[in-house]
Amino acid sequence: MIKFNEKAPYAPVEYLYDVEEILYKGKSKFQEIMVIRNPHYGKMLILDDVVQITERDEFFYHEMLTHVVMHANPCPKKVIVIGGGDGGVVREVLKYKTVEKVYFIEIDEEVINISKRFFPTVSSGIDDPRVEINIMDGADFVAKRKTPDIDAVIIDSTDIIGFARSLFTNEFFTSVKNCLSDTGMFVTHTESLHFHKDMVIEIQEALKKVFPVVDLYTAPIATYPGNWWAFAVSSKGPSPREIRSKTEMKTKYYSDEIHQQSFMPRGMYERLMQRKLEW
Amino acid sequence: MIKFNEKAPYAPVEYLYDVEEILYKGKSKFQEIMVIRNPHYGKMLILDDVVQITERDEFFYHEMLTHVVMHANPCPKKVIVIGGGDGGVVREVLKYKTVEKVYFIEIDEEVINISKRFFPTVSSGIDDPRVEINIMDGADFVAKRKTPDIDAVIIDSTDIIGFARSLFTNEFFTSVKNCLSDTGMFVTHTESLHFHKDMVIEIQEALKKVFPVVDLYTAPIATYPGNWWAFAVSSKGPSPREIRSKTEMKTKYYSDEIHQQSFMPRGMYERLMQRKLEW
Q: What is the CATH number of domain A57-273?
């Protein structure tokens, strides 16, 4: 188990939203699930009091989590999506015509059901014939796979506490590596550079013990505390900074330019890892 | 007067901070001034209920507001700083050995006094002999200057409502242009790309009526709502994307790499101005 600051993901600011209407409130085996309506964001999905997605701006996170690893791959065919029961990442992955199979692994089936009911534009790809849904712990799914034929493993977890922790262990990272094709990539969010810099560094360090190439990019996500969101991306060799896929597709934020610009500058990355960035 | 959405800078989220201690609370001629202590951020300066600076992370905003225009200038000598009574921008400007004169124009003297008392690391440059303090409306100061010898005009205003509005008019932009040297640059913040995209666009459009070169860069500011903060920068010709000053100095966030990376990619900028970015 990687040693995290136990307080993370504590944020030094609370975000308050107007609630026009509570559309759903229930408890699954894993968490409290709520759907509310906000005058600016439209419908918002909230798990254990943490905003997961909003109708209005979910694309920032889903596009940036998906398209960097997918564009860094010359021809992505098989993809594993772990978490992201709302279906946002699955929707983005299906934009690639080369994709033949999406293993969609979600531990909490209730999130899928709620997303189909309240967020049809997000969950739209879940019933695509290329998608195989498995309701189970993503760590178990990956541990059982032995063929290195996966082109992208994408983790769309909740905050890195509680049951999501099984996705942030050396064992899990090793299982993921064993699944990946030579050009395959692995990506996960790692919280905010403003509020959880130590966690961002620790996950980079843990990944470096397993993968020869580990890198970091960021995106501005308005509804995640600290906003300046960090993504860790790993591969067996190819750099994720390079775009190898020529796929044309509709996105609202992601573009080739954003792909390149979102990576942390090399000098700054070195200072980060040497713990020389002071804030 | 530029036509703004009257609701801006309304933010669809409220930020809540723990208050360990209220260190100061008072009312100046212009606004309510408060200094509090927060367990994460240390001391925080709050004007009319809006967080202006925190001890811990003020450098993100002050560095990014100052060093882009200063580094884009081959030899900055004379600088006008309007607003920023806390002194943070003045401190950054004084890091350049070439700087001979800083005209520091603040409408509210109380902010300077409070900053000297509670934020000595921010206000440290205010009493430097190169600094000339003028307590007045920045628009009036600039309108009276007729010599085009200023290398940087830096606006560090509060949100673009109330008395700060005099700094966002065509008349003011024209006065600024008349002050600038041929290599001089003008910079101002323009709120958040997440929450005030229309205002960001409108200010770019208004600046384009006066300046031949207008551009946009961003920085992640955790305590400003929406976080993904936009800066408008203008010149009579030289591109602000290019670094021309060779000054070595200590910064925590700004670097040559960040300078270049902070500018909005050209294709995205075009889509923004064509109002094709949907969020």
A: 3.40.50.150
A40 alpha carbon, distance to own chain's centre: 24
Q: Which of A57, A86, A108, A156 is catalytic?
A: A156
Of B233, B229, B212, B232, give the one whose Cα is nearest residue B221: B229
Is ipTM beyond 0.90? yes
Indicate which of B13, B37, B63, B279 best probes the interface with A, i.e. most A CBs within 10 Å of its own CB.
Answer: B13
Chain A CA closest to residue B266: A257
Q: pLDDT tens-digit profile of A248-274?
A: 899 999 999 999 999 999 999 999 999
Rounded Cα distance between B206 and B202, Å, is: 6
Q: Which residues of A77-103 are buried (b: 16+ CB within 10 A; e: fewer)?
A: ebbbbbbbbbbbbbbbbbbbeebeebb
Confidence (pTM): 0.94
What's the CA gap between B264 and B267, in Å, rounded? 8
B56-273 falls under which CATH superfamily? Answer: Vaccinia Virus protein VP39 (3.40.50.150)
* Terminal Cα distance for chain B, rounded: 26
